[in-house]
Every structure is written in structure tokens, then in C-alpha cells.
Amino acid sequence: MKIIAINGSHRKGKNTAALLNNVLEEAATLGATTELLELTDFNIKFCISCNKCLGKPQCSITDDDMAAVGNKLLAADGIVLGSPVYWSNVTALMKNFMDRTRYLHMIKNLLAGKVGAAITNSGLRHGGQEATLKIMEYFLQGHGLHLADTRDPEGTIMSAGVTGSLMADFKDDKVIWRRSATDDELTVTACKQLGRNMVKLIEQLNK
Ligand SMILES: Cc1cc2nc3c(=O)[nH]c(=O)nc-3n(C[C@H](O)[C@H](O)[C@H](O)COP(=O)(O)O)c2cc1C
């Protein structure tokens, strides 16, 4: 079982990567092979809206890294997207990646039946996380993936998704910032549950 994470943060290895790694590490403890792809490592050009992918499941742009990333998506059983909130939305890197996956979707939903999940984090406590999460979930559903959630089937519900934040508290007229989104135990707990639920859902679907 292969689960890959796509990090749309413009900062490699920071908060979003740390959260994605928590999802992947938990999935790995249950036997999954995992890989984190940092979009900053790939040259992915803008979609030029040539609409060639309406005729065949191929992208007309071939002189960049999108085909390599697309092949990794095709080979995975599970795909978890991570983006920090940028203006209550996904980052430009994540959106560009989304646009360029159109060739995997128009003629035939080539990623359909896989398991998908999304995580986000932002500076503020209510900084647009829910909107950002939904944008990624709509994308995954559009591609026909089954969405995993953060519910612990045997425990209490704690989180509707992974929506971290750097804002920890407010004391003496000052905001107390977390050094990392992973300093919030609830966010890390939700990541780990998501990793377990992805593995479980992939197993159920492949029975
Ligand atoms: C261009 C830009 C836009 C941002 N927009 C928001 C926002 O709308 N709401 C918010 O709470 N934080 C916003 N942030 C803060 C990031 O979401 C936050 O710092 C996040 O933890 C960064 O993740 P990273 O460490 O993976 O880069 C923004 C940051 C940048 C650079």
C-alpha cells in the first residue's frame, strides 16, 4: 500500500510538511509505504488552457515535472494534500498543481477509487482553514477519490478535519504564537487519526 503526500507550502519542511509527516508516519506504522512530495522541488508550469486533455488523457506541456508527479499519483493508493492557508485559500503552488491534473480527469477519472485526504494550517485561529480544507476536498472528490476523515471510530469526535493554527492563546494583550503547528496536540492527534483512517479505508476498498 502506497500513500503519498503533496505539500503545497511555499516553505519546504515547515508547518505543513510537519503535519503531513505525522499523517505519513502513522500510516507507515500500519504497514504503508509513504512518500512526501514537496511541490517546491518540482518545476510545474501553469496550465495554458489548450484543452488538449479534452481529447486524450495527456497534457500538452511535456517539458516540466508534471508527468512525473502524475505518475506518482497514479501509482498511489492514497493521496493526502497539504496546503497552508493563503488568503483563506490554498497556495498558488497547490492550485497550479490542481489545474495541471486536469488530464487525469477529463476523458476518464484516472484517480477514481483511491483514498484522498487533506490537511491545512494557518497563522490565525480562524484564518480560513475550513474554506481551504473544503477546496482540497472538492478537488479530491472531483477526481473520484474516497475521502478519509479524522474520526476515531472507537473514541470521541475531536476534530472535523486537520485544521492547524499557530495561534495558541491571548494573554496580557498579546497573542501567544506556537513555534510549530505540531505544538498543538489536537492537530497532531487529528493527523495521526487521519493516517490510520486512510490505511483502514484503503484496506476496506481493496478487500
Ligand atoms: C501569502 C500568505 C497568505 C497568508 N494568508 C493567511 C490567511 O488568510 N489566514 C491565516 O490565518 N494565515 C495566513 N497566512 C499564514 C500561513 O498560513 C501560516 O504561516 C502557515 O503556518 C504557513 O505554513 P508553512 O509553515 O507550511 O509555510 C498566510 C501566509 C502567507 C505567506
Written description of the protein model:
By secondary structure, the protein is of the alpha/beta class. It has a single domain, classed as 3-Layer(aba) Sandwich (Rossmann fold), CATH 3.40.50. The chain has five helices and eight strands. The protein has helices spanning 15-29, 66-75, 92-100, 129-142, 185-205, and strands at residues 2-7, 33-38, 78-84, 115-122, 146-147, 162-165, 167-171, 174-177. The strands form two sheets. Strands 1, 2, 3, 4, 5 and 6 form a six-stranded parallel β-sheet that branches. The protein has a two-stranded antiparallel sheet with strand order 7-8. It is globular and about 60 Å long. The two termini are 13 Å apart. The model has no long low-confidence stretch (mean pLDDT 97). The structure holds flavin mononucleotide (FMN).
